[in-house]
Amino acid sequence: MNILSIQSHVAYGHVGNASAVFPMQRLGHEVWAVNTVQFSNHTGYGAWRGPVFPADAICDVVTGVEERGVLASCDGVLSGYMGDAQTGEAILDAVGRVKAANPQALYCCDPVIGDVGRGIFVRPGIPEFMRDRAVPASDIATPNQFELEWMTGVEIEGFGAAKAAVAALQALGPRVVMVTSLRTPETPQDSIDMLAADGEGAWVLRTPLLPVSVNGAGDAIAALFFVHLLESGSAAEALSKAASSVYGLLKRTSEAGSREILTVAAQNEFVTPNRVFSAERV
Ligand SMILES: Nc1ncnc2c1ncn2[C@@H]1O[C@H](COP(=O)(O)OP(=O)(O)O)[C@@H](O)[C@H]1O
Ligand SMILES: Cc1ncc(COP(=O)(O)O)c(C=O)c1O
Ligand SMILES: [Mg+2]
Which protein residue has the closest C-alpha to ligand 2 atom 8? Predict the structure, then answer.
């Protein structure tokens, strides 16, 4: 498949495209990577350098790809971290152009806003843009628990509330939603859950909680879920494959005591995860 991936890039470490591109390539897909920023490192370090690209620079790169006459062969658009709310306009413009060239193409929006520990970590205007423009334009959305609660206003106190929040997000647009890092009173202390829903049902997947706090796992899992969903058409299967790969990746990262995820060293986990977790219908 051919995936247009519009996200951040970092020189050092693995978040944004620097986390998402290689796993998709390792699974045999062509990735047309367009970078929304080029930072030295992820913002979780508190300090970083490098530019946020203006929306017209992003549009220009997409126009160049369009001029190669290849957009009709694009199977999906994946978006993630936006440097600035204006970046969002360039992303939605790209989605529109891809869908005009290939009406079968799907748009997966990873609405990167923040997370439970750090709160909102993107520029003002981006959270609202994700909720009001990007997610409604998407076919698939992949928020973490914090992002889902922020966008829907639903407090997730258990699986029932999680399903209600997912339904509220689906009502905005996307047919498929995958929620990452779900920790509710129903989640055992030593575990972490994920939930995926499509038009037919909802599934939960539970893995052990690893002693790591890293950035970029969300970007990898969104990319993996998207390509597996495009290939299989099954949210449950895509959830199982993506979560098993990311668990393997984070287990290696945890054993190595690394602050950055071991995207390259643990690459076999993308193809044949060591441990396979399956999703249960809820
Ligand atoms: N400490 C952890 N232990 C086990 N799995 C984790 C851990 N942190 C992240 N993950 C896995 O990575 C997925 C994505 O990470 P997450 O932190 O939710 O993404 P984001 O960075 O977008 O917030 C989670 O759903 C979970 O499967
Ligand atoms: C530049 C950049 N891109 C993307 C992300 C998102 O990372 P995550 O996958 O942890 O949500 C971050 C988070 O700090 C970031 O700084
Ligand atoms: Mg994320």
Answer: 216
105 phi/psi in degrees, rounded to 5: -65, 145
| Ligand 1 neighbour 41 (Cβ under 6 A) | no
Which contacts qualify for 264-273: CB closer than 8 Å, 24 or more apart?
264/22, 267/22, 267/23, 267/26, 269/244, 269/245, 270/23, 270/26, 270/27, 270/224, 270/245, 271/26, 271/27, 273/241, 273/244, 273/245, 273/247, 273/248
Could you report the per-residue pLDDT of 176-207, keeping only the tens digit for each? 999 999 999 999 999 999 999 998 999 999 99
Q: How far does residue 206's CA lie from ligand 1's centre (Å)?
A: 11
For ligand 2, say whether the CB of 110 is within 6 Å of any of its atoms: no
In this structure, is residue 265 part of a structural domain?
no
83: confidence class by pLDDT, cuts 50, 70, 90: confident
The pLDDT tens digits of the residues spanning 251-279 come to 999 999 999 999 999 999 999 999 999 99
Print the domain residue range for 127.
Answer: 2-178+214-234
- Count of domains in the chain? 1
Query: pTM higher than 0.95, yes or no?
Result: yes
Q: What is the per-residue pLDDT for 60?
A: 98
- What 3-state class would DSSP assign to 139? coil
Answer yes or no: is 230 within a domain: yes
For position 112, which CATH number holds?
3.40.1190.20
Q: Is residue 144 part of a domain?
A: yes
Is residue 247 in a domain?
Answer: no
Beta strands 76-79; 106-109: pairing state: parallel
pLDDT single digits (tens) 112-123: 999 998 899 999
